[in-house]
């Protein structure tokens, strides 16, 4: 009798356990790792860091591995070789890849910044409005030839009837990482710089921001998330989640104060004073450098190619529809609030 009772009790316990197991919470799906390679660590990319820091990628079930791969060539090499899944770099690099005849084109799928991010810094303070003609005959410390900053710089100079090669002494053979140091040591009367270095120089009295190349060169797909077509085709759901997280970050940046944005991204710039971060973020936000959504419109794409063409870096114009896929960004804009 006791044996039957024990057997019955065990059976009841097993049944209860099975019932609880079947009714209990399902095991959470494992996060999908996405490896991002950013061309540089920059305050210009604030919405990217917001998306990571505020957990927007995590909410979408994505585990982001963010690495900095200095230089567009290194970033694109990492993408093409499979070292990263997604690259954050200038759209011009996707055009360069196409010009080289790649069988697996690199597709732009979400825009992060929509203007150039550099500023014209003068060694001397200038009172009143800046006259671009004052650059003529000066020594100008520019950016690397073929890169988007240099092309946007030359485009702006030509817009103001200045021939970069004839009207000034243009220096562009200094590595990106050493441009600010070269200017600080006495090279050049003007220099083209990103933030936060422009704000740092102003604080130190070593230079003064007199104009914005971002304002002057207009809207273009300056920094964009891109991936190989084969990756997008195989991982369309992941790419959509990526675009959703980015859109949420872009919405947050647009709605938030400079102070709140600074707090959100400060950990990514541990060696930069918070007041400098604030100054840099404010400049970029005020001039509309942070894209409000990931959509790359055709007018911006054409403006990009105008800039490249003016710099002599475009063999032939690239088909917008062949290198841009807006379906993910468009859906994110419609659904993410």
UniProtKB/TrEMBL annotation:
Sorted alphabetically, the keyword list is: Signal
Q: Which residues form the signal peptide?
A: 1-28
SUPFAM superfamilies found in the cross-reference section: Periplasmic binding protein-like II
Recorded GO cellular component terms are: periplasmic space
This protein's record includes keyword Cell division: no
Keyword Transmembrane helix in the entry? The reply is no
Question: What Pfam families does its record include?
Answer: NMT1_2 (PF13379)
What is the annotated localization of this protein? Periplasm
Determine the domain of life of the protein's source.
Answer: Bacteria
Q: Which PANTHER family match?
A: ALIPHATIC SULFONATES-BINDING PROTEIN-RELATED, TAURINE-BINDING PERIPLASMIC PROTEIN
UniProt similarity note: Belongs to the bacterial solute-binding protein SsuA/TauA family.
Can you name this protein? Answer: SsuA/THI5-like domain-containing protein
- Organism encoding this protein: Paenibacillus rigui
């Amino acid at each position: 009798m006791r044996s039957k009772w024990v057997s019955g009790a065990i059976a009841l316990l097993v049944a209860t356990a099975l019932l609880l197991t079947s009714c209990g919470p399902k095991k959470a799906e494992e996060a999908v790792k996405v490896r991002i390679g950013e061309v540089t660590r920059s305050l210009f990319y604030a919405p990217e860091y917001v998306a990571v820091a505020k957990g927007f990628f995590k909410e979408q079930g994505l585990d982001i591995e963010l690495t900095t791969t200095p230089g567009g060539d290194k970033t694109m090499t990492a993408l093409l070789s499979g070292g990263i899944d997604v690259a954050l770099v200038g759209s011009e690099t996707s055009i360069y890849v196409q010009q080289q005849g790649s069988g697996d084109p690199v597709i732009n799928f979400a825009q992060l910044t929509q203007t150039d991010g550099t500023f014209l810094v003068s060694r001397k303070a200038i009172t009143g409005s800046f006259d671009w003609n004052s650059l003529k005959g000066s020594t100008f410390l520019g950016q690397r030839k073929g890169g988007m900053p240099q092309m946007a710089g030359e485009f702006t100079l030509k817009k103001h009837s200045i021939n970069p090669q004839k009207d000034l002494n243009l220096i562009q053979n200094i590595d990106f990482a050493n441009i600010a140091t070269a200017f600080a040591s006495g090279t050049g009367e003007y220099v083209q710089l990103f933030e936060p270095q422009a704000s740092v120089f102003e604080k130190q009295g070593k230079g003064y921001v007199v104009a914005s190349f971002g304002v002057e060169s207009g809207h273009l797909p300056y920094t964009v998330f891109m991936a190989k077509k084969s990756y997008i085709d195989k991982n369309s759901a992941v790419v959509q989640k990526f675009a959703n997280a980015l859109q949420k970050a872009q919405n947050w940046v647009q709605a938030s104060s400079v102070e709140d944005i600074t707090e959100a991204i400060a950990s990514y710039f541990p060696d930069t004073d918070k007041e400098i971060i604030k100054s840099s973020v404010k400049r970029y936000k005020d001039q509309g450098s942070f894209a409000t959504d990931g959509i790359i419109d055709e007018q911006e794409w054409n403006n990009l190619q105008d800039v490249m063409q003016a710099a002599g870096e475009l063999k032939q114009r690239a088909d917008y529809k062949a290198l841009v896929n807006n379906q993910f960004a468009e859906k994110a804009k419609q659904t993410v609030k």
